[in-house]
Request: fold
Amino acid sequence: MARGVSMALSEDQGSIRKLDVDTRTGLMGGARYAPSPNCDDRPSGEEISLVVIHGISLPPGEFGGDEVEAFFQNRLDASAHPYFREIEGLRVSAHLFIRRDGRIVQFVPFHRRAWHAGESCYAGRTGCNDFSIGIELEGTDDLAYSDQQYAVLNEVLRSLFTSYKRLDNHSVVGHCHVSPGRKTDPGPAFDWKRIGCAVKDESFGAHDV
Ligand SMILES: [Zn+2]
Reply:
């Protein structure tokens, strides 16, 4: 019940969001929980040590609909758009989805492994899903992300840094950095300086897989 009250406040009054993480449940206060079946256990003893930022919109470039949530819950109607045929049958998810207006949806508890990075490598380690949290921003590579998204993402990151001690400004990267040549999101439109991170693409080149 208390959680419901918190959610109502966060959606009506963005300035008093409560984004604390309950490390027992792995859920973030202020996020609406919409469970995805596309997850499993992290490897035994694995600590969360990376955050991967993504961009997504379905159909690409269209915002505000239910399609991303449907996609992560394996209920996207493939007949509704030609692009949906291309991604039909994919089983993917992310921990969080931050909408253009700053609302947050959580699909996977943080202690579980979400399926967001795919083939990937960071600092010589492959399989970034094992040790990362995946955050999807509603958007595209080349359209500016919204002020609300940057504001909420900053709050989310601060909360994650508090709850998971191996995370800090140096452990936040883009999907483009861990899957170079295969993925481009969150794209050139994402301004890393606005989240206090100055990611250099060159530092990841040696780990291309
Ligand atoms: Zn991605």
